[in-house]
Known about the structure:
The protein has 19 helices and 14 strands. By secondary structure, it is α/β, with parallel strands linked by helices. Helix 3 (115-123) runs antiparallel to helix 4. The radius of gyration is 22 Å and the shape is globular. The model is unreliable at 1-23 (pLDDT under 50).
Amino acid sequence: MKDSFRITRRTxxxxxxxxxxxxxxxxxxxxxxxxxxxxxxxDHVVVIMFENRSFDNVLGRLYGPGEVASFEGxxxxxxxxxxxxxxxxxxxRKFVEYGVxxxxxxxxxxxGEEYPHINTDLYGILNTKNRFMPLAxxxxxxxxxxxGQPLTMDGFVADYISAFTAEIGRQPTYKEYSQIMxxxxxxxxxxxxxxxxxxxxxxxxxCEVPSQTFTNRSFFHAGTASGYxxxxxxxxxxxxxxxxxxxxxxxxxxxxxxxxxCDAPSAASMTAIIHASxxxxxxxxxxxxxxxxxxxxxxxxxxxxSFIEPDMWIGHNDMHPPISALVHGLPIDEPSSLxxxxxxLAQVYDAIRSSDSSTxxxxxxxxxxxxxxxxxxxxxxxxxPPAPPPDAGAPPGQxxxxxxxxxxxxxxxxxxxxxxxRLVVTDEYRHTSxxxxxxxxxxxxxxxxxxxxxxxxxxxxxxLAKPRAPEDWPDxxxxxxxxxxxxxxxxxxxxxxxxxxVFLALLEFEKSLGGTVPAISKDAVITxxxxxxxxxxxxxxxxxxxxxxx
Length: 550
């Protein structure tokens, strides 16, 4: 997401989940259990969306050849990317072959994830004027392909070398840039892998835009991004000018409930920022913490639709690759966001598995969907398909993009008592399948855009005639998560270029909502501690439901 900007405290000891804490999932007597009714299997939909990793990176080694009837993974394939001849180190090797990540913070630093970078990844196009350049200095057509140009999936190494050089100020060594051609094993990511093997995994699920966080998260709930392709600039793009109707409003119009749950200590919701022009009147009522989610699940009072945001700020547990502190000046990348994300996922899964209300939400009537917003520049070998523009006849959007092709393949796992073990869904799905599924389940009206009109419904994969009892669901145990060093939060270290850019963008957002924010010059030096104080004071007045005692 390369836009992490919350400066606050994170103590991961509280985020280890019931499984990691040694809790036992209660096994209920048959008479005590809620009554199975497949017609109610989608009474409650819960989505947890992590950040910036491709399918190959997270789940590419889930199954080997022959383990299941069909699985589009990395094992048994000769996957590699070319090394450009302008690379200062290792060009004589010609290729980087796909391998296994050697630690839980790979690739580091974060790859380029904006539209020009993803174009290079997918098509191998890197205009010489854009080589080694930060986004602000890139030129049109932003490495975009010519009409009909084939996808090669061969530009990940070239783009990583270029982006690394722009960010760090020197070309990377072979060891440094070969990171981009690595992914994780099931042993390294036991929670994600266990859930994927024991329920349904989609091996052709694509994000909607070949770019970064805001645009893809906007498509997830609105089927469009009002023409915007990158997070910022302009700072006011999404909070002020993204006016697209959302699925949240469709739910309300039908008398159905929804909530966005943000993992503490987040002081603002990304969903709220992205859709501020439509949702600002719900900030005080519909945005809560993950602790509230756990209580709602326990009481059986989950809304019809729940959307869970990991902590995408300091000490983040959103699975995002590390972001260079040299650029951001922020201590956001310890401990591993992958390990933190695994712990959060275990916590959410266990809460649903153990929910047993006879009248409200429970393990029988709740679907949990796990996915990531975009691939973030990490390698994937499957070419994204074309896609219908969301609004027919609309002019090209930001950077000239016409929104006629999908983003990169990302992990997606569906968890329900009505889904068989080891299900691999090979049909093409996409982020707007969530909108389609909710519309179909509750008769929410016509498609929001042409994109969700073309997306398939998730409901058919809930194919079992009899549900699986919770004791037959797998136990999950996340690996230990190192603690975040809270001493950084008192730092007088100045924010880096991008860190300050996002900080000022957040102030612009607060101002657009009528909040009182200090006047800060773009040339001012802002320290970590100062930014923390400003954001806390501004954000919690707008999102009171995110305030915690931490």
